[in-house]
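Title: [Solved] Monovalent cation/H+ antiporter subunit D 3D structure

Original question kept below for reference.
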Amino acid sequence: MLLETFMPVLLPLISGILVLLARSGGLELQRLVSLIAVVALIFVNLNAIQIAVQLPPQVYALGNWIAPFGIVMVLDKLSATLVLVTSLLAVAALWYAVRQKIDEQGSHFHVLFHIQLFGLNGAFMTGDVFNLFVFFEVLLLASYGLLLHGGGRLKTRAGLHYVSLNLVGSTLFLFAVGALYGILGTLNLADMAVRISTLSPDDQGVVAAAGLMLLLVFGIKAAMFPLYLWLPQAYANTSAPVAALFAIMTKVGLYAIIRIHGTLFGENAGDLAAIHIPWVLWLGLITLFLAALGAIASRHLREQVAYLVLASVATLLIGIGINNVEAMSATIFYLIHSTLIAGAMFLIADWIRQGRGEAEDQFISAHAMPNAIVVGSIFMVGAIAMTGLPPLSGFIGKLLILSSALTHPQFFWILGVVLVSGLLMIIAMARSGSLLFYNVLPEEKCHTIDGKEVCKTPKTLPLKGAASVIGLLSVAIILVVFAKPFHAFTDSAAAQVFESNLYQQQVLQIKPIANPLKELVE
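Solution (posted by the thread starter after getting help):
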């Protein structure tokens, strides 16, 4: 039982408290503490992923209470990957917020930022269903504050939709958890899986209904059809660094489907095995097609990027729905790529919004923006990565998912929807680039006043936070250059996901830490 297993959850909580205490020292001190804490979190998560690679799933029992009676945190390759991706995204989003002074626009930005990380990492590492609910609520409460950071009519309207739908989701989550506890008598994930494997036929209907209700809840978090309508407006209208951080939020829902449904309804679940898989696959296909149409119909760039995030979620759902080790490996590979690139695209969209004056990032003609060549080039790299075109890593991820589906009965549906949707997204991004960078209004650079020629001074757009954008986009190249070792890692992580017996054994057979003072007390 290693304390390092718990550190990715503990550190953001401590950081949030420290940032709150630093408030009396001013914003600069809060920024310093906040940045140091997020960078430290990266090193903690690198250590966590090293442990996950070298050892079987590691379990930390809070308060030395062993499973299934106590709260446990479980570190395996999948959860370690997700907490590392979260911290990389967080440092980029936070640096952009500081450089652009977006954190000045409201109160408690840094505190909410770290509490959000606490909720995210907790959700990725918890070993029981009720604490997954608790961490969901923690991250949602923080996200409500971050979503509305800076205020504004559009943010408030999108926030109300977001809050309302998630409150419904939380209520359904409690109903499902109550039903499962009533039948199984436990909420520890490993223990629940053991009890489902020996479940009487009379109780299977209730457990199946609760499992599908949980799928509905996770579908809301992941923005799965028909529950995705909250995402485009919420992501498009919040501030850029918050939208970038929210790129990982939908992955919490996907992770919950992989972890909860994959463990409870795995191959040992008898008649209940894989009851969620057909739903996930078909709803993923529908979501992908509608997301591509949404990208075509978008009226401004931030909305289009939000629909592209939705498309990436749908692609991951398809990978989960194919339901084999190769598809899970491809899903993890594409998840890393799509999350970080989506974060970069929200930041690029913010530069474009700043540079186009009153036209902002709407798809209408406007005067040429400053630094158009530089910003346009970066936009093109992001668009290639986001739409999954070669030679960047999005292409590899999609190719791996399609390759894993070759023997699937629904292969031609998967192939058709992925290819058609991909084509629509390429058309959407090509049209956006043309409108934003080539379809510009003529502008008089010089004019004559009293016989003298007066020329305007060229405007410049300070690309503050460029390190965040370049750092996130570089992932699309790094994943290509080191594709073989990365793919080998995702293969092993995927194989571990399907080893539900190993997960159960590690959680249920954990030994409490011996107390050296016990004999003295007695």
